Prior knowledge:
The complex is a heteropentamer, with two copies of chain A, two copies of chain C and one copy of chain E. By secondary structure, chain C is of the alpha/beta class. Chain C is 36% helix and 25% strand. Chain C contains eight helices and nine strands. The longest helix of chain E has 20 residues, at 208-227. Bound molecules: adenosine-5'-triphosphate (ATP) (2 copies) and magnesium ion (2 copies). One adenosine-5'-triphosphate (ATP) sits between chains D (11, 13, 18, 20, 38, 40-46, 76) and C (127-132, 157).
Amino acid sequence: MVAVAxxxxxxxxxxxxxxxxVRLYDVPPQVVPSPETVGSELVRLPEYLATQSWxxxxxxxxxxxxxxxxxxxxxxxxxxxxxxxxxxSPILVGFNAIPKIAIGPMLxxxxxxxxxxxxxxxxxxxxxxxxxxxxxxxRSTPADLIELTRSLDASRVKTFLKVRVPxxxxxxxxxxxxxxSLAFVGAVVGxxxxxxxxxxxxxxxxxxxxxxxxxxxxxxxxxxxxxxxSYYALVALERLLLPWSRxxxx
Amino acid sequence: MVAVAxxxxxxxxxxxxxxxxVRLYDVPPQVVPSPETVGSELVRLPEYLATQSWxxxxxxxxxxxxxxxxxxxxxxxxxxxxxxxxxxSPILVGFNAIPKIAIGPMLxxxxxxxxxxxxxxxxxxxxxxxxxxxxxxxRSTPADLIELTRSLDASRVKTFLKVRVPxxxxxxxxxxxxxxSLAFVGAVVGxxxxxxxxxxxxxxxxxxxxxxxxxxxxxxxxxxxxxxxSYYALVALERLLLPWSRxxxx
Amino acid sequence: xxxxxGVSRTFSGRRGTVQALSGIDLQVDEGExxxxxxxxxxxxxxxxxxxxxxxxxxxxxxxxxxxRREIAMQFQRPALLPWRNVLSNVLFxxxxxxxxxxxxxxxxxxxLDTAGLAGFEKQMPHELSGGMxxxxxxxxxxxxxxxxxxxxxxxxxxxALTREELTVELQRIHARERTxxxxxxxxxxxxxxxxxxxxxxxxxxxxxxxxxxxxVPRPRSLGQNEHTEELARCSAxxxxxLMQNTDETITQPAG
Amino acid sequence: xxxxxGVSRTFSGRRGTVQALSGIDLQVDEGExxxxxxxxxxxxxxxxxxxxxxxxxxxxxxxxxxxRREIAMQFQRPALLPWRNVLSNVLFxxxxxxxxxxxxxxxxxxxLDTAGLAGFEKQMPHELSGGMxxxxxxxxxxxxxxxxxxxxxxxxxxxALTREELTVELQRIHARERTxxxxxxxxxxxxxxxxxxxxxxxxxxxxxxxxxxxxVPRPRSLGQNEHTEELARCSAxxxxxLMQNTDETITQPAG
Amino acid sequence: xxxxxxxxxxxxxxxxxxxxxxxxxxxxxxxxxxAEQGLDVEIxxxxxxxxxxxxxxxxxxxxxxxxxxxxxxxxxxxxVTGITAVSAVQQKSMVGFMTLDGYGITTPKDLEGxxxxxxxxxxxTLLFPTYxxxxxxxxxxxxxxxxxxxxxxxxxAAKKVDVIGQFVVxxxxxxxxxxxKAAISLPFSDVITDLYGNVLLTSxxxxxxxxxxxxxxxxxxxxYAITNPVEAGxxxxxxxxxxxxxxxxxxxxxxxPYARGEGAKLGEIDNERVSRVIExxxxxxxxxxxxxxxxxxxxxx
Lengths: 250, 250, 255, 255, 301
Ligand SMILES: Nc1ncnc2c1ncn2[C@@H]1O[C@H](COP(=O)(O)OP(=O)(O)OP(=O)(O)O)[C@@H](O)[C@H]1O
Ligand SMILES: Nc1ncnc2c1ncn2[C@@H]1O[C@H](COP(=O)(O)OP(=O)(O)OP(=O)(O)O)[C@@H](O)[C@H]1O
Ligand SMILES: [Mg+2]
Ligand SMILES: [Mg+2]
């Protein structure tokens, strides 16, 4: 109850502040619309906005799933071998800095205007926190436990599966939570540079280009909502899977 | 030595592969230029590119520094109080999902076309991993150590400063490393939406629009380089400050 | 100084409920030295945590006539901060209390000296042996100069000799400072040597089986003493009491 | 079975160099039970780690005539996996070795039973007392049915009674399986009761001060035995040896 | 710069990016035309019509060229307020379609059944129904896919779309993006004759005297740029090395007739033509009826 009531209350306060600011400072509506305008847009186009949101949500989760697979694989490789780490990590860091806008032409050339290019951008944006957090987690295993596996002559694979990975899970989840947030950013960027008229990101950008600021903000609102829902789905999953982590820390 | 040699070797391999791909698959140069073209662009405009890169680097570090301050403050508030956590966290997650493209007009209205709007975008992009990682770190203190501080009747502030914060530092650094990477993304986005004509991100976008793909890739290369350098500066700092963390883990 | 009235403590988790302590009535007077013995898992550490205020009792009342800071607790595990060296781990309470660090450095070194850790001030905890870590945590508790000292098997990881030396030291401190002490131990010898009274806990749920008074004047030492007989009698009684508990069926966590 | 020739081990860190062991010559035959005693920090754990192959000697040679998996090590700290319950912590080596879990569950329960942990199979490590955790780690080492058993103060957190029970159990196992055992302890009684030979280490750098043969037939028990005199003699000798080391100035880590 | 103390500071935004078609502002700056008028102009890079209008409305910028049609549509529907047009940079609209040689499109009729890529909110999309009606084609037979401005050239070159919305001056860039293939443009002005190209916008609050000075300098730069396209391209390239001087020169050459138009003075904007534009848009149902030219323009003296 409280867990829902508090943020809603806080949100209402924020909306109130927004309302007041827009009124008091006479912010031009083409820059920031008033909350009512946004609300009326939500009411005006419920079906359209739902369809577009659903499209984005699918992109996000598909891309996120792929990013998890790739990210974990990379993290395992990096933390398993110093050579891989030293050779790959800097490249990964550099690669991650490539502006996604710059790969637009490649995207269009390879994929056209479907969902793939957007999923591709989602993956690009969100795999890195997964890699980094997982590597950090895998490396944080206490020396005690590694000594135990060594005394049992455990293979590297078993040590990973039975000790390092479980130990890394809390940090892995931090990575996932960051990644899902970035996945939404990625979906919007993908919809922006990837072309086509699907997705809530497209709605936002198109509405903004047409100075339909109210609609743009309605889209942003829905995007934020989906992002919050996805994030807390992960939080719930974490609580379910890792009770020990909360019980042994304080 | 090896730490530098390996990635350089790997990079050279990548460049070789790139060269071959471009040759073999006859990729049009306006989509992906060949490595020589990129090299010649670097040689052609060294001063201009250096100035623009330096501008971006300043944006990045200024924004990063602000994000660290804000991120840490938020993280402390969130992990100090359940109420703050429940009220603020969902909003933060939603806020983080707002497409930066959508806030272009607001930025320009508030800040004009100077460096501030770009720094602002850098902050927006990179404060979130700092918050999340720091909160996760602050919450991972072993029950043992918290019991110790409780037995000493330590105030919350002292418990934070003397136990939770030091314990959280390794995870905090994971957050910093993610943040610095995102800071570069933020700088480019800021330069893209914030107007003005400074920064390597502007160079990349403008060159791309003018189908000067060689120059765009040269910009990307410099961006990646700065990103790698900044990232490893943090890694070095971590090694310097947290030897205990590496010594007690394995 | 310390008063427990019908104190009980239950732990309930997803895997069932464990009653750790039940109906504990105990009074410890100012300056008294009470030892607690009992089988592993019978609730000794839980008792100390209750007295220290680290756990709330699920039944009964715990009253301690001292502020939190006047109570020092030595935990069963060393609980050292991995990023601090030995000296600064010992000085940790000083920093928490906001005392002047400078004024206590000498005291810390002295304690480390007594504990046989001279020269290790700059080492990090992970570079120490198990017993050395335990001694560091002992020094950390002693630097507080507490009115109430709660010690949870402080010598378990130490050899007989070091143990003896530190026992002597502890007696000296107790004689000088009149620190009210509760001392959990598995060594009947230690209990008999140090305590005014020895509380014997029976296991699951932990109850007080008996409290044995050790009516021997201080300072005591084992074996070379005119009260040998009395000490031996106490030891035997404690052995017997501990033995009794074996018969009791060990209860399981109620599912 | 185990052969150490002039083994030494130095730890060098940023805070100076500590010579933990120096010139250790030791041979342990198959089926032999060797106890190691010595002051805290004298290098006992380091010795076990060297034999287990967890540390490389900085000088000399360590030879063990058994594969890694035939050597079981019980660490000084329990080192339990916090996300596994008691039973599955005990079964951890089984999983690592790729043995059939099913076939070993019964054995694990039996061991837990013997250790007085029946009914706690489903509890998580943080819900156990210190001594209970130590017993879980003992069960984990025993489930391996090793040819070589390395035990680092396995009973330090246990009460006298549990200790006695487990000592008996250990003797039984040793008699049945002829496990070559190195057993680090702080209890001279325990050493004398269990071991064929007792190695006395002198501290910093750890050297072998003497090896005391315990020429008493098995099964032994303290006090009620025709060899009481011989056992007492050994105990006294060990005490004396440990005392000697006090004179030696404790060396500091060379800076 | 040391005399900049007594110069009036002005913030100018390009219409979009720093293409050759924007060179005139850089020329005016380089040649000192702004300084002559006592102005210290800071040229920033515009990111599109919407952003430019928002920047002007919020006072973040003082002057910016914006496509006239987009401007009238936006202002007439009340989505933006407080800005006005002071002059016309191009007398004739440069908006249009562009396709590549061999894609089989040479006349408006060929558009039917084809896929067109266009930036969302672009004038081409907004006016397409009007264009289709006047050109006699069925607008419903053309599929319009929104494509980010930066990807239009690539999408056309990769034949992900058959035709794109593009200013006629975009020809050299599109050809470069297509690896040298010839581009074909279908300008709107062939069918809808009255549309202006970009108009120079400013806030309604701007001092008319300042507007006049700025406009004089800017139009002088425009005159120079279209008369000396090669030099103008180089000036642009010097200021913005991302540009391609040769492409810029070609753009300016193409732009010259559009800037000059037929018979009007360079930069001139008049009520009569604006009222015709309003008529077209009202007929198309894009703006409410009854709008007056004065609501949109305040020509400089
Ligand atoms: N946090 C907890 N959650 C659940 N059960 C607990 C918890 N702490 C202690 N217990 C249970 O309470 C009982 C008493 O534990 P306690 O640690 O007080 O024993 P102890 O007498 O100190 O034993 P030892 O001599 O082994 O240290 C045990 O059965 C233990 O399983
Ligand atoms: N990882 C390490 N780094 C540095 N020094 C170490 C390390 N491990 C052990 N030492 C040092 O080696 C010496 C012997 O340590 P060891 O743990 O073997 O002692 P021990 O005999 O087992 O003591 P205890 O009875 O207290 O467990 C100690 O002085 C300790 O400080
Ligand atoms: Mg205990
Ligand atoms: Mg040891």
